[in-house]
Amino acid sequence: MRDITTLINHKDKPKKSERTLRAIQRVGQAVSGAVGRFVAVGEAIAVENEELKEEMGLACFEARRAGNAIAQLTDVSTLEQPESDERSTVFSDRTAMVKAARMLLSSVTKVLVLADRIVIKQIITSRNKVLVTLDQLERVTTFQEFVQIFSQFGNEMVEFAHLTGDRQNDLKDEKKKARMAAARAVLEKCTMMLLTASKTCLRHPDCESARINKDAVFQRMRYALEQVIEIVTDSRPGGEAQSVLPISLYTGIKDFKGKVEGLRESLYHVSVESLSAQLEALLEQMEDFTDSPYTHHEQREGLLQLCSLARQDTHTLIAAWTQAQSAKATEATEEVELAILKACQSVCELRKELHKIAVGRATELLKQHSEHLALHALKAGGGEGNLEAVAEYARTLSEQKEQLVETCRLLCHVSGTEPLEITCIHAEETFHVIGPQIISAAQTLALHPSSKIAKENLDVFCEAWESQLCDMAVLLREINDVFEGRRGDKKTYLSLPRPGKHSANLKTAKAAKLDSEEQSTIAKLGLELRLLTSDVDSEVERWEDQEHDIARHSQTISSMAYSMYLFTRGEGLLKTTLDLFHQAEILSEQGFQLCSHLHTFATQLVDDDKAVILSETEKLAASSQQLQMGAKTPVHGKSATFLKVEQSIQNTKGVMTVVVFLLPVCNKLLKKHKSERNSLGSPQDWRDKQLPTPLREEALNGKSSNGFGVKSLEQHMAGLTFLESK
């Protein structure tokens, strides 16, 4: 595209230098060659797709003809011949160049549209094959038949996973991308559930709870498959319009505030009635918070007071606004300006309180359920054949499910972006569905306590519940980041490099996207990186002062590493390998800053503890240096780029491993420091008192003390389904 623009916009000069002539000819040849390669791909696609062969062939023919025309118009080698040569060139006939360029762009666009139709058709065809095999799986009556059909089903799901993964990467609409990610996550988890639920039903064909458990999995898989098709075809079954997300309180407040501030530009661009009605609709939505049985009384009273204040300030604004209109004012008066500020401030305070309630409730729930007591009790009761115990803890789990569903609904209101709203809805649906499935699996085990397959089935559903709680913790962090302006374009380390920074990389590296096989390899590596970010987040949660420099910089490094993990999934804001390398550079800088804070902290410690911190700080500095040097090293070629990506993630893991070890050690020493400082006469007395610091082997190996450490990659991959590797 840039080459074509260059050809059209070249400067007309009476005399062209030899260098200019040759440059124009090279550009024309480059365009023609690129078109030729593009057309070759299009023609190959046409051969494989008979129904679009004619249309694709015509589009390719037009593109090739336009490319040849551009090559002829830029062939300036004969310009030195006598003037009698009237052959058209880019200099003598700019109109012909514009016409050829338009034909080229039109035909290339048509080829791309046709290719897109073919991709959509491939996804639909793949889905249809999966559905047919799914129906066969649902009707099998013997293990032998099940194994045979499930093998075919697995191959078809692998194909579907690759197609939908590529499609997700190509989507430009972040909302669609989030919906696709949610649907694929359901298919990922349901694949293992389908295996164990079906085996359990085959082993215990007369068990009603086993049948209910299996039916729910099949139903959810079919629903997720339909969702994927809705996204890729941009429609719903029966030609219905695409579903629209309900307006969240965050969006409603943002729109209301925008209209209020718009009065500064024009007092007449919106009616009094519409503004008042919008506020009342907004306050009516507050019922999701005020009517929730899980909202504390004090919080409910505080919300109602803020609602009353917002209504009062809006009425004051309307009065001042009406008065200004009556006076035929052409711009906002001083009274209107003051009323605008008050109205905006009151709704902002309301938004802050909503965020505080929703996030606080979610944090509280995650802490309550971190030990998964209800799940352990259900497993124990089922294994003992104790139906009464299973019934009792089923009620407990159902209550937890309702709390989590309600909390996800509240988080949706304050999430701040449409992709996060979709993730909240996905979490809500997941808890709503998996809760009853765990109960039915536990009931089956209680009826057949010696059944190994029934026990395995319950374990799979419990793991899915625990996984969703982990995902909810990540979601909570992202919502906080958006609220505090630490995500998206506002956060330097997540945005693309600013002009003038990291210029060396910009000159020597080329952005590239990984192919499916490379993406799969990197995804397996990225899984351990994600586990490390979870460990860091868990350790930071244990700090009383989470704004402490060490905790804060560790959290920042974790957020950067998580965005690199998303890259390994083909998701997130890092789209190309160049983005990843820039992110690695900035992460290394944060690592050096954390080293500085650790050195300061070490000066407060006694000798043995100081030596431990300084030793680990040296490791962190070395890992950060290795990461920075690797990210800055220029590479050429696809293979070298892939190796650099792999090394960048490995080096990031090295940084994160040290951070995971340092956080609990520093937290413990900091608490001890404060305690001793309060009880002893001077800080020096504390320094003179030795504090033994037992170093556990799992900590030195990069494992955290909370039981959610990084196991070997092979252990994690053993339970990983194919969709995780996308």
Automatic annotation (TrEMBL):
<dbReference type="Pfam" id="PF01044">
    <property type="entry name" value="Vinculin"/>
</dbReference>
<protein>
    <recommendedName>
        <fullName>Alpha-catulin</fullName>
    </recommendedName>
</protein>
<dbReference type="InterPro" id="IPR006077">
    <property type="entry name" value="Vinculin/catenin"/>
</dbReference>
<dbReference type="InterPro" id="IPR030045">
    <property type="entry name" value="CTNNAL1"/>
</dbReference>
<keyword id="KW-0963">Cytoplasm</keyword>
<feature type="compositionally biased region" description="Basic and acidic residues">
    <location>
        <begin position="685"/>
        <end position="700"/>
    </location>
</feature>
<dbReference type="GO" id="GO:0005737">
    <property type="term" value="C:cytoplasm"/>
</dbReference>
<dbReference type="InterPro" id="IPR036723">
    <property type="entry name" value="Alpha-catenin/vinculin-like_sf"/>
</dbReference>
<feature type="region of interest" description="Disordered">
    <location>
        <begin position="674"/>
        <end position="708"/>
    </location>
</feature>
<dbReference type="InterPro" id="IPR001033">
    <property type="entry name" value="Alpha_catenin"/>
</dbReference>
<comment type="similarity">
    <text>Belongs to the vinculin/alpha-catenin family.</text>
</comment>
